[in-house]
Amino acid sequence: MRLARERRRMPSVEMAQRAGVSRMVIYKIEHGDLSVGLGALIRVLGVLGLDGDLDLIARDDELGKRLQDAALPRPRRSVK
User: Fold this and answer.
1) So where are the chain's domains?
2) Domain 2-51 has what CATH class?
3) How far apart are CA 57 and CA 6, in angstroms?
4) Is the dihedral of CA 29, 3, 53, 12 positive or negative?
5) For helices 23-30 and 38-48, what crossing angle results, to 10°?
6) SS3 for 65?
7) By the 8 A CB rule, do 33 and 4 touch?
8) DSSP of 17-76
9) Interatomic CA distance for residues 35 and 37, integer angstroms
């Protein structure tokens, strides 16, 4: 997030103002703090123009599909 902001030559204070959050929230987001609310994260992504990428988060969850398939009951083979 920090790199995306810096590429746009936007100071963290301006980012915070545009997103309607505090500068500390921007700091936490940029440092991966998991205590930041999802709403704040989405607003920051919107300011950066990256909110369209939210659709890609779980679009094709290959690992999830494999884990789900592994948990399915397997058919029992008959003993001959």
Assistant:
1) 2-51
2) mainly alpha
3) 23
4) positive
5) 90
6) helix
7) no
8) HHHTS-HHHHHHHHTT-TTS-HHHHHHHHHHHT-GGGGGGTTTT-HHHHHHHHHHSPPPP
9) 6
Say if CB 43 and CB 19 are below 8 A apart: yes
Would you place residue 80 in the very low, low, confident or very high pLDDT band (cuts 50, 70, 90)?
low
Residue type, 65: K
Q: pTM of the entire structure?
A: 0.69
List the one residue out of 37, 38, 43, 42 whose CA is nearest residue 17: 43
Please check whether residue 36 is in contact with residue 25, taking contact to mean a CB–CB distance below 8 angstroms: yes
Give 36's pLDDT tier (boundaries 50, 70, 90).
very high
The distance of Cα 76 from the centroid of its chain, to the nearest Å, equals 41
> Measured between alpha carbons, how far is 5 from 11 in angstroms, rounded to an integer?
7
